[in-house]
Input
Amino acid sequence: MDLQILKLNFIQDFLKLKSEKAIAQIERLLRKETVIISEFKPMTNSEFHNRIEKSTKDSKNGKITDVEYLISEIEVWS
Output
């Protein structure tokens, strides 16, 4: 589905909302997303390759985080 169509469908659904609580939740989510986007800084090609090298080295040295542990930590965040 085209992004413009998704946006229009969202706006139509949003305008049908009657709950102030739901609108406030959507507003908070939108503000969080805006902050995340404004703080995003793309890596340079060099930074990207350095990150790959460091990650590969960390993996070989056993410096990794277990997926189950990470998921349990993420669940605590919310």
